[in-house]
Structure formats: structure tokens, C-alpha cells
Amino acid sequence: MESKPDFKTIMPDGLVPVTDIDLRALSEIYDERDVYLSVYMKSSSAAELDASRSFIASRFKAMDKSLPADDLRQPFRSTLSLVEESVASLPWKGERSRVIFACGPLSFLHVYRLGLEIEPLVVLDSSPFLLPLARLRDDYEDYGLLLLDSQEARLFTIRSRLLEEKIQSSIDLMNKHKKGGWSQMRFNRLRKGAIKSFLGEVMEDLLRLEGLQDMRGLVIAGPGEAKIEIMEMLPPQIKEKVLGLMDASMGTSLADLVEMGDRLALEKERAYGRERAAELRSAVLRGQLYASGADKVRDALQQGRVKALLLLDGFVIPGWICESCQHFQEGSQPESCPRCNGRTSRVNLLEELYELAQRTGAEVEFVEEDDFLRSLGGVGAILRY
């Protein structure tokens, strides 16, 4: 399927959160020939850029030599001309990697500059190669971070290590009781009331934070007891989104906040992956709704029965795909597709299963090392019915 006209050229003018990249739309693009070039490169320093460009040049040269005929070599060379400037350009402030998808014959070019690191990779295939981006997206979903004490609050969103401050508020509190006037008891009572009122205002700001329900969750940080107090005040729909509480001073640098928040959010994501793997294991042991193995999971995805697709991170399932009818399966590559006699190519089935899950609306979860999922062939699915 060819991309829509308004999706052919995308070159954002700033660093892009990985959650802003439309992986579902990219997963729907394919051609009967290997004409889509995917380039992943590091770009955070001159040394990394030089190393990435050297690697990319060697891959381009090897690909050009390996293409069997001019009907593929000429489209490939037109694609190289299309990506040349994007590969050669200097990095932007904060850029750590660059992702390029291109197809010269179809004038298709997407260039994404990320604030996240990614390993260099060059792939020529019948569709954009999305698996590295999918893994990044699984690890770096958007989340909110609230930094507060009893007098000040700052609310941020963190998207792929890009921090944006949404709200800052504070109140003036007298911290010492002076002689005369109020009694100490009355002073303390008024002070506690002011703090409670302030925390209530912060909670209202949280409720108004656009997109919070669609984010991974919320990290609450700060010194002292204020973070615990506001946690107790939160309504259930927000409380269940809290990823954890974190001790931090109000003077913590923004870079350190991102580092600490990312670490906590990633731990939560890893824990969720383990929970999903345990859920799949339970379904298998009880003979409930599940599918395992690449081919059975593929069939369940095509039928729209998959609730959650579990992929073992870093695993490779050798298989093949027909570039004409797009049928794919595990095993050695036949000379031609047994279904339509079309041309075939070798693939890692994790990529094909991921793209199919994107097209059918299934949840995708990458699971770190898990012996049970490995015993199932590196892939499993929790089914809807």
C-alpha cells in the first residue's frame, strides 16, 4: 500500500518524541519490491556521526552490489540521492539519534531527530523497518512529573527525554511564629490550612493536565511529606496513574529530574511486561485464551482476536514474507510464495507480527528476558476470544 499524499514527506523542525511518530500509518505502507530504505544512526557528537556515516556508507555499498538487477538497483540509487542530505546534515541541539525512512521512486521521505539513543542500522525492505522505534516507544512512553513541597509546585511532561514545564505555582508561608498576636496553636492551624488549600489547587492543576489519562502515568517527587499528602488527596482515576514517589530537592536540575523520572518509569514498564508475561503463562497453564508461536499468533492477529501481543525483546524468529500478497510465516524461505507464486524475502517475524498488531489495534508489549516466553518461541498472545 502506498502512503497518502500528506504522509509522503515528514521532516519536523524540532526534536520529535517517539510517541509522535505514527507507527500505525507507517506499518500500513508496503511495496511488492524492496524499495523502502530505513536508516537508524547515532548523531549526538561528531565522533558518533562519523562512525554512523562510515557504517551507513559501507551498508549502502554492500546493498548496491547485492541487488540482483537494474530494476532494483536504479530505484535504490534514487533513494540514496533522496537521503543524502539528511544523512550528511549537522545535528541539532539535544539530538542523539536520527531515523530516516525513504523511497526514491515514490518520493517518500521521513526524517525524525530524536533525543534518545538508538543503535545504527540500515535495512532495505518492502516496507519501513519499525522494530527499533517500536522498542523505543515501549520504553519511553510519555509521563507527567510533579515536583512539590508545601510551598511550591512544578508540573512537567516528559516525552522521550524532552521536558516541558506546564504549570508552576507557589504560596507564601510564615515558617516561624513571632511573639505577640496569634497563639502558636492558631498559627499552626492556619499554616496547615494554607498548605492543604495549596495542595488542593495543585491537584486541580493535575486534573486539568491535558492528555494525562493517555500517558504512561505520573511521577510525584519532592522533599518532605507534601508528595505523600497530595497522593492521599488524589481521586482514584489519578491515583491509579501514579508510577511512584521520588525523593528530590526543589533545586534538583531538570536533567537530573528527567534521569530519575525515566529510571522510575522504565522500572514500572519492565514490571508491567513481567505481569503480562505471567498473565500469558497462566493462560497457557489453564488452557485459556492464548496463542503461541509465530504462525498461530499471526493467524490470531489476522482474525482480530489478539488483545495483547508479547514479544521477547531482542529475539529473532527467522521466516519469510511474500512481497506480493504479504503472507509471511516461520521457516526457510521458498523460491516463490506457495499461495500466489510471488517473490519472497527473508525477514525477522517479530517485525511482521509487530506491524500486523499495529494494523489490527492489538496492544504490543516487549518483554525482557523471560524463560517461559522464550520456550514458546519468543512470541505469544493473550486473546480477546
| CATH topology assignment of the largest domain | Translation, Eukaryotic Peptide Chain Release Factor Subunit 1, Chain A
Question: Spans of 5+ residues with little confidence (pLDDT < 50)?
Answer: 176-180
CATH architecture of the largest domain: 2-Layer Sandwich
How do the strands line up in the largest sheet? 1-4-3-2-5
- Content-based structural category: alpha+beta
Largest sheet, strands/sense/barrel: 5 strands, mixed
Overall outline: globular
Strand residues, percent = 15-25%
CATH H level of the largest domain: which superfamily? eRF1 domain 1
What is the C-alpha radius of gyration, as a whole number of Å? Answer: 25 Å
Order of helices and strands: EHEHHEEEHEEEHEHHEHEHEEEEHEHE
How many β-strand runs? Answer: 17
Word description of this protein:
This protein has three domains: about 1-140, eRF1 domain 1 (Translation, Eukaryotic Peptide Chain Release Factor Subunit 1, Chain A), CATH 3.30.960.10; about 145-250, Nucleotidyltransferase, domain 5 (2-Layer Sandwich), CATH 3.30.420; about 270-385, 60s Ribosomal Protein L30, Chain: A (2-Layer Sandwich). It is built from eleven helices and 17 strands. It has helices spanning about 25, 45-65, 70-90, 130-140, 185-205, 225-235, 235-240, 255-285, 295-300, 350-360, 370-375, and strands at about 10, 35-40, 95-105, 110-115, 120-125, 145-150, 150-160, 160-170, 215-220, 240-245, 290, 305-310, 320, 330, 345-350, 365, 380-385. A hairpin with a 3-residue loop joins strand 6 (about 145-150) and strand 7 (about 150-160). Helix 5 (about 185-205) crosses helix 6 (about 225-235) and helix 9 runs parallel beside helix 10. The chain starts with 8 loop residues before the first strand and ends with a strand.
